[in-house]
Amino acid sequence: MSPASPLLEMRGIGKSFPGVRALSDVSLTLYAGEVLALVGENGAGKSTLMKILAGALRADEGTIAIDGHDVTIASPLDAQKLGIGMIYQEFNLVPQLSALQNIVLGSEPVRGVALDERAARERAKAALAELGIDLPLDRPASRLSVAQQQLIEIAKALSKRARIIVMDEPTAALTEHEIDALFAIIARLRAGGAGIVYISHRMEELPRIADRITVLRDGSVVETRAADQFPAADVIRAMVGRPLDAHFPKLPALAPDAKVVLDVHDLVRVPAVNGVSFSVHEGEIVGLAGLIGAGRTEIVRAIAGADIPTSGVLTIDGHRTVIRAPHDGIEAGIAFITEDRKAQGLVLGMSVLENMTLAHLEQFVNRDHLISHTKEEESARHMIDELHVRTPSPEQLVRNLSGGNQQKVVLAKWLLGKARVFLFDEPTRGIDVGAKAEIYALMMTLLENGAAIVMVSSELPEVLGMSHRILVIRGGRIVRELTRDEATPDAVIAAATGAAA
Amino acid sequence: MSAVLKNVWLRNALLVAIVVVFMTVVNMAAHGEFLNPRNLVTVLEQISYNCILGVGQTFVIITAGIDLSIGSLVALSGVVMAQVANHLPFGGVGLVLVTLLAGLAVGAAAGWINALPVVKLNLPPFITTFAMLEVTLGLSYIFSGGQPVALDNAIFSSIGTGSVLGLPVPVIWMIVVVVIASVLLTRTRFGRYVFALGGNEEAARLAGIATARIKTLVYVISGMCASVVGFLYMARFSSGSPDTGTHDELLEAIAAVVVGGTSLMGGQGSILGTFFGALLIGLLYNAMNLIHVDSYLQKVVLGVVILLAVVLDELRKRYLARA
To answer: What's B16's domain CATH number?
Structure first.
């Protein structure tokens, strides 16, 4: 191995699926001790490229070299043996197994035929020490926080001696505070000589974490530059092939006589929500900021009836409403756009049309109680046009759409109703810049029509840029209310973490 | 409806082709006996019991559940109906109707009890319906004293062995059940919710669907289908026996559902698919009997066919997913 050869070199990689050219002539170089950011819109080919590196897919053409030697990666096991570790956005943990068991999963140390518990523990501890962190090793993975689960994934990779570590949207589910911790860990890995491929949609992180940035568009590499010479505006232009002027649309000013649409009084849901009161006016977006686990999602879930609140009073348009189930929420005019669209928002095996009409099927029933496919199709086509859903037909399975388009289907489902209150939980998580802009534009339309919006977001710029008011949540309570003018990143983080402001 | 039919045909196009070739060959081997209309009507009559059980099971399986209690529920409802019929002071159509209603009530009640722990405690239906299998089996022995309960009134036997327009009564029942179930599943809100529930229960719940009610209903439907079969068997044999329905009926109903393209993982399936699944299995048995295939070997063939059907379906899905 010559010291000059890069840790990883992918050359001329091409991959086609029936009807789609996913990658063509993609080359990528990763040096030891660097963080290479890989960015691009959804569908640009990032995942395909990384799946080829991980051995989950075979490339049609091109070569891969590690330390200057050509290698064949035919299976995930090959990739593992070559020191490639993948941290996917959706973790691959066995929820019932402990943190320790997950870390050594697939490479358990044995003595004879028996598991060597002590060696496993030592190996796991060594990996954690390398990361400079501590984890409750005996706790089942299901009972750890998202951030902790991610650390297990990283420790798992390290315990298998991974030197090339791919992280797919690692900060998507983390709070600012946890992101800082993750970045410190990445810095350690880099100092230890690992090479990191860092996939992200968050422009603002790139200068903090990346040494170089490679931009993919439509299956080809558009540009690679040193991060400090690649300003965010240029990166976005390279990604979308056109300049995107403003990140966020301009929020319309709140009418001085705007009526209160949603009023929440002393909402309690044991143990996560401990007495929350606030109101939202028509045409207003109220942002809920805070760390993961602060209780933001639980607040909106309790309002929507996804969880039954322990106590509290809900008033919508001046009418007191009792919500004991999601159905009650919908009746009362609440639309709840959940955090996890695959697990909670969509039936992936159903078509675009069926997903769109699911919550309001009563609108599509004839007098004979049978569903009118014609009516459904009419509405679905209208929504597809309105929201620019990229789908070949209303009959396409939602499973086959990209993240941004799936999110639009979720929105369409709620737009078919007559909701007055929209609860958005992480509305743009994991979707590309173009689709984000469209979703923001849609929120603007809702405001014009007099809707009241509550938005939970872990992306600080989103909360700051898209809220009239920000409520900072900590420990299931509102700890600070900030107007748009008062809201600075520092103020929000200080309140969210409990640091003296 | 036509879109659904087309879908079923497309889904099963390969199978249908295989079946046609197979039938032609068998027909020649059986000297034209196989495709003889009289023989085909016999096959339809033979599959009607399995098909009706399969229809009920299809609803349950689309919600990613399973109902193991249907076989012994056939026995219990048969025994209960025979006892009710023998104790009623009147005869004629009134007797038949009240008897049938009693049977349907047994099936519906069993289905409701099946669903209760599934809905309230989120217990796996495999367990609750397995327990129900044992309970209903035991009850059917208790209510019959272990012996077939002979029917006093001959009206049932004329129903069980009668024909309408050349079609045996069970075939008429099958057609009615298949049509109603198919409309229910493909054209009503209930049907759509069954699919949504099986595809993603949480998403369905958050869309405002009363998931507990839908789930309960599918087990009630399955139980009532078992009662219908119990009624048909009772009428045919002029007795309610604790032994009917408790042999291969459960497994063959599941086989019909699976061969018909319904996914055990939930979220996918069709009633017409189940009908064709039952038909395929029925034709296969009939053909093997006609050309004197050893009855032990018949079981082997059936097993292979079930596996093949599912493998083909999976390959087809993968092909479609890639295209």
So the answer is: 1.10.3470
| Integer Cα distance of A442 and A454 in angstroms | 14
Find, in chain B, the residue whose alpha carbon is nearest to that of A411: B207
- Structure confidence by residue, pLDDT tens digits, A211-247: 999 999 888 999 999 999 988 878 877 877 755 445 7
The first and second tokens of residue B226, run together, are 């078992």
pLDDT of the residue at B221: 98
CB contact at 8 A, A139 and A98: yes
Q: What is the pLDDT of residue A433?
A: 77
Q: A472, A495 in Cβ contact below 8 A?
A: yes
Determine the distance in angstroms separating the CA of A148 from the nearest CA of chain B, rounded to an integer: 25
CA-based nearest distance B132→chain A, Å: 30
**CB within 8 Å: B195 and A19:** no
For testing contact with chain A, the best of B206, B268, B317 (most A CBs within 10 A): B206
CA-to-CA distance for B268 and B52, rounded, in angstroms? 19
- Is B215 exposed, middle or buried (CB count within 10 Å of its CB: 0-12, 13-18, 19+)? buried
Task: State pLDDT tens for residues B189-214.
Answer: 999 999 999 999 999 999 999 999 99
Say if CB A359 and CB B210 are below 8 A apart.
no
Asked if B183 has any chain A CB less than 8 Å from its own CB, the reply is yes
The CATH topology of domain A261-333+420-426+448-496 is Rossmann fold (3.40.50)
Task: Return the SS3 of B313.
Answer: helix
**Nearest Cβ partner for B208 among A326, A347, A373:** A326
Question: Hey, which CATH number is domain A8-240, 1.10.10.10, 3.90.650.10, 3.30.110.70, 3.40.50.300?
Answer: 3.40.50.300
Q: Which residue has the tokens 């992918």?
A: A10
| ipTM rounded to 2 decimals | 0.82
Picking from A209, A93, A96, the residue whose alpha carbon sits closest to that of residue A146 is A93
pLDDT of amino acid A364: 93
Q: How confident is the model at residue A1 (pLDDT cuts 50, 70, 90)?
A: very low
What is the rounded distance in angstroms from the CA atom of residue B170 to the CA atom of residue B76? 19
CB pairs under 8 A between A and B: 78
pLDDT at A200: 84
Segment B105-124 shows an average pLDDT of 96
Q: Which amino acid is at A374?
A: T
